[in-house]
């Protein structure tokens, strides 16, 4: 548990910490962005659209996926679902925990959120700010590269 998860208003002034082993070596977080090898993930999405990947320099294959939330819903049992425009099988559960909101700082509390592919197939459950909405950009690291889900 981090200070920004306990006091979400701090996210407006300090970035959530990155798990060093989950991101490429030359990655730094700001309040509203993640920069990998000098490339802003938010800027990359604005330039290229989503879903898109940034391939990081280094000895091991490492990409970072940038995706857009295309829908949100709450299930009958109160679980929050985010539908993404990317259908990837690459990120593992530990990596999905590094899912980052890009382009704005959220001071909303973290809630358990199920992240789904475009077909609403659950990919992972991670804590995300409660105000993540359709149109928001998200970034997630994919050590070892990423593979598309079958049929994508």
Brief descriptors of the model:
152 residues; three-stranded antiparallel sheet; seven-stranded mixed sheet; disordered C terminus; mainly beta
Give the SSE map.
Elements: H1 3-6, E1 27-29, E2 34-36, E3 39-40, H2 41-48, E4 52-55, E5 62-74, E6 80-84, H3 93-96, E7 100-102, E8 110-116, E9 122-129, E10 137-143
Structure commentary:
This protein has 152 residues and is mainly beta. 11% of the residues lie in helices and 36% in strands. The chain has three helices and ten strands. The strands form two sheets. Strands 4, 5, 6, 7, 8, 9 and 10 form a seven-stranded mixed sheet that branches. Strands 1-2-3 form a three-stranded antiparallel sheet. The longest helix is centred in the first third of the chain and has 8 residues, at 41-48. The radius of gyration is 14 Å and the shape is globular. Mean pLDDT is 85; it is low at 148-152.
Sum up the overall morphology in one term. globular
Class by helix and strand content?
Answer: mainly beta
Residue share in helix: 10-25%
The separation of the N and C termini measures 35 Å
Which stretches of 5+ consecutive residues score pLDDT under 50?
Answer: 148-152
Strand content: 35-45%
Radius of gyration: 14 Å
Mean pLDDT: 85
How is the biggest beta sheet arranged?
7 strands, mixed
Order of helices and strands: HEEEHEEEHEEEE
**DSSP strand count:** 10
Number of helices: 3
Q: Quick recap of the structure?
A:
This protein has 152 residues and is mainly beta. Helix content is 11%, strand content 36%.
């Amino acid at each position: 548990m981090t200070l920004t998860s306990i006091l979400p208003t701090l996210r407006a002034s300090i970035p959530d910490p990155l798990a060093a082993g989950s991101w490429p070596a030359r990655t730094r977080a700001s309040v509203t962005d993640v920069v990998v090898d000098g490339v802003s993930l938010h800027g990359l999405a604005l330039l290229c659209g989503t879903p898109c990947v940034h391939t990081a320099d280094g000895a091991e294959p490492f990409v970072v996926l940038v995706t857009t939330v295309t829908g949100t819903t709450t299930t009958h049992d109160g679980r929050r679902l985010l539908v993404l425009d990317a259908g990837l099988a690459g990120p593992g559960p530990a990596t999905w925990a590094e899912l980052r909101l890009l382009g704005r700082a959220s001071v909303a509390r973290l809630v358990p959120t199920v992240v789904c592919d475009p077909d609403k197939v659950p990919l992972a459950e991670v804590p995300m700010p409660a105000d993540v909405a359709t149109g928001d950009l998200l970034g997630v690291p994919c050590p070892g590269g990423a593979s598309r889900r079958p049929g994508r």
